[in-house]
Amino acid sequence: MGWLLILWIGCLASQAPQTQTIHKISVMDSFAAGKPQQRAEWDRAPAVRVCESTKVSLLRARKAIAYWEMLGYEFDSAFIDHSLNCGEPRYGEIVITLPTNKTPPAHLASTRIYTEKVTANIVKAKIFIYPKEATKQRVIEHEIGHAIGWLHHPQKYHMMHPNWHRGGYDSTGLRRKE
User: If pLDDT is split at 50, 70 and 90, which confidence band does 100 have?
Assistant: First the structure.
């Protein structure tokens, strides 16, 4: 299969937006130049396996998947894994699991993707999420965005904004290209 490259994407800082005051004028980012960037993509429709310990319901996971399907992405099955050793993604799958001690505590969730070295296609992905963040709007949608290769995009209200407080459901530039 070739060598795998691992990409770690820390996501969604939970702190409130920071403003910068210059000569009594508050400056916040509200416009991002350029388009969102997709670092890698799948060559097949990935399955989504949700570890029961995350407290992410199947309905919640399917709602997040539906957001990306609406943009033209395809997914295989989605299911809850009740086993105790649920955590490592299999080839062709996105797994939603609990964070490890390497997950930054200031993040609501984070994603790691594994790519095939020769083709640079994504072969598996791992989403780390704290149970208390599992029901928060947009968190799983945002992380699935990383799992299908999208990087952060600092446009205010954009799905891939790195700060949860500044993000939203704007999907400009995220539609799958056929």
Answer: confident
Beta-ladder partners of 127: 96, 111
Write down the residue that tokens 């060598």 correspond to.
3
**Closest CA relative to residue 85, chosen from 111, 59, 52, 60:** 52
| Alpha-carbon dihedral 170, 11, 145, 51, rounded to 10 degrees | -130
| Pick from 155, 162, 59, 60: nearest CA to 110 | 162
User: Which pLDDT value is given to residue 32?
Assistant: 60
C-alpha–C-alpha distance, residues 41 and 120, integer Å: 8
Q: Please report, for residues 23, 90, 162, the alpha-carbon distance to residue 133 in angstroms, rounded to integers and kept in the order given.
A: 38, 24, 15
- Between CA 13 and CA 163 the distance in angstroms is 5
Q: State the CB neighbour count (10 A cutoff) for residue 31.
A: 7
Residue 136 one-letter amino acid: K
Going by C-beta distance under 8 Å and a sequence separation of 6 or more, which residues neighbour residue 108? 11, 12, 13, 14, 129, 130, 133, 136, 139, 164
Paired residues of 161 in beta bridges: none
For the chain, the maximum distance between any two Cα atoms, rounded to a whole number of angstroms, is: 57
Residue type, 149: G
Residue 95, strand partner residues: 49, 126
